[in-house]
Write a structure and sequence with these properties.
binds adenosine-5'-triphosphate; alpha+beta; EC 6.1.1.15; binds magnesium ion; 5-stranded mixed sheet; 442 residues; elongated; 12 helices
């Protein structure tokens, strides 16, 4: 067999962060403001596996495997948003205070807004969300006609929020990735239809990721509007409290209920069960709140300018990544939704100088073979060629990072009918397979 090309020799993630012990930390009284303090499982696992590295409170380096995973997640999000007509754009993060003063959110946002001045003394903020920006953009479209609506514009960008307590790794950052979409419709009825379509797309997205989210009625906060839902992933460390009726379809964030009732406000009979959740998505019907202020209008069928009906829809991209790890992983190792695992397969050749070291060349051949036979595995197979380390040690790293499949190339590979040890990390099963068996499995 020809030697594998350099690009196939993908090195596993070698950037492994030092593990932060509480004793390493200065006592500053406000522990959540210490970069890298371990506050939850996903953060610990992600730092140990070399996926993230703490920079300053609420800010992280996203290391190469994380970027791969994020890119996959964004691709799935793109598919779902574009399937309902979403068009992707990219708006500035550096936002002029003028817009925020016009909407009166410059004051309303308080300390959460990162504010700065340019060299001329003009006020700016780092975008925590983009209702003002997108509505102004649409207001500047001179020829928008009712025929072009609904208009769904979305982006995947960094958002900046000076959270009072950044913690839980990527779950609550001060700089994080969000997918935010904004819709413009001809009427309230049409806006409600768009709202429903986005909620369905979100439900589909979470189902594809294997995340069992619940959609609950939610408060509209300082975004404004009248109808709102959150997509919550049930988890012990969730900071939201959810109430779900045991009898009817009612489910809500506790923030929604004025008094401490147990009776269900919808069916008046069922008991409300409380659980904790991580807010991974949020949808809002905005009505004309922003379109009225910024004069985002379209020409209706009588050619009259008409103010558009709006909605906005957020997904926490980096939060979804960490939340998935939080709920799927074991204490020892990361488990991923298969769709967004950074790599699908890790191949472990034998240790240098071991009895079976000649099997090393078979590992190279196996990778070539896998990538040629199964095109979707191209670039998805890692060769852990740190052969100065024992297989056991590398296996531990592989289990920590959570490659869905780990293949050990050892004694079996040298036999007349070669076989390989395959560990399926999702199920924890180990099987011995021939090359054909392996292709079937993958
Ligand atoms: P939270 O209640 O957790 O503070 P939020 O209600 O302030 O979130 P939204 O304004 O609804 O957040 O933003 C849309 C989405 O962005 C959220 O549903 C969440 O998934 C994500 N998100 C919000 N704040 C953060 C953060 N600090 N770090 C990571 N993701 C976040
Ligand atoms: Mg918030
Ligand atoms: Mg919230
Ligand atoms: Mg929210």
């Amino acid at each position: 067999a020809s030697a594998p090309s350099h690009s196939r020799h993908i090195k596993p993630t070698l950037l492994v962060s030092r593990i932060y012990q509480p004793s390493n930390l200065r006592d500053v009284g406000q522990e959540s403001r210490v970069a890298g303090e371990m506050t939850c499982k996903s953060q610990r696992l992600m730092q140990q596996a070399g996926l993230i590295h703490p920079s300053n409170p609420g800010c992280y380096y996203y290391l190469p495997a994380t970027v791969r995973s994020m890119e996959k997640l964004v691709r799935v999000i793109d598919q779902e948003m574009q399937e309902i007509g979403g068009q992707k754009l990219d708006m500035p993060s550096l936002c002029s205070a003028d817009l925020w003063k016009t909407s009166e959110r410059w004051d309303l946002m308080g300390k959460e807004l990162f504010r700065l001045k340019d060299r001329h003394g003009a006020d700016y903020c780092l975008g925590p969300t983009h209702e003002e920006a997108v509505t102004t953009l649409v207001a500047h479209q001179a020829t928008l006609s009712y025929r072009q609506l609904p208009l769904l514009l979305y982006q995947v960008t960094r958002k900046f929020r000076d959270e009072p307590k950044p913690k839980f790794g990527l779950l609550r950052g001060r700089e994080f990735y969000m997918k935010d979409m904004y819709s413009f419709d001809v009427s309230k009825e049409a806006a409600y239809q768009t709202y429903e379509a986005v909620c369905q797309a979100y439900a589909k997205l979470f189902a594809r990721l294997g995340l069992r989210c619940v959609q609950v009625q939610a408060d509209t906060g300082n975004i404004g509007g009248t109808l709102s839902h959150e997509f919550q992933l049930p988890a012990d460390i969730g900071e939201d409290r959810l109430l779900v009726c045991g009898t009817c379809s009612f489910s809500a964030n506790v923030e929604m209920l004025s008094s401490d009732t147990t009776d269900c406000p919808q069916c008046k009979a069922g008991t409300l069960v409380e659980s904790k959740g991580i807010e991974v998505g949020h949808t809002f019907y905005l009505g004309k709140k922003y379109s009225h202020i910024f004069k985002a209008s379209f020409s209706n069928s009588q050619n009259k300018p008409t103010i558009a009906e709006m909605g906005c829809y957020g997904l926490g991209v980096t939060r979804i990544l960490a939340a998935a790890i939080e709920v799927m992983s074991t204490e020892e190792g990361i488990r991923w939704p298969g769709l967004i695992a950074p790599y699908q397969v890790c191949v472990l050749p034998p240790k240098k100088g071991s009895k079976v070291h000649e099997a090393a060349v078979l590992a190279d051949e196996l990778i070539l073979n896998l990538e040629e036979s199964l095109p979707r595995l191209r670039g998805e197979v890692v060769l852990d060629d740190r052969t100065q380390m024992t297989v056991g040690k590398r296996l531990k790293d592989a289990s920590r990072l959570g490659y869905p499949y780990v293949i050990i190339v050892g004694q079996g590979a040298l036999e007349e009918t070669p076989s390989f040890e395959v560990i399926c990390q999702q199920t924890g099963e180990t099987v011995f397979l021939s090359k054909d068996g392996l292709l079937d499995l993958l």
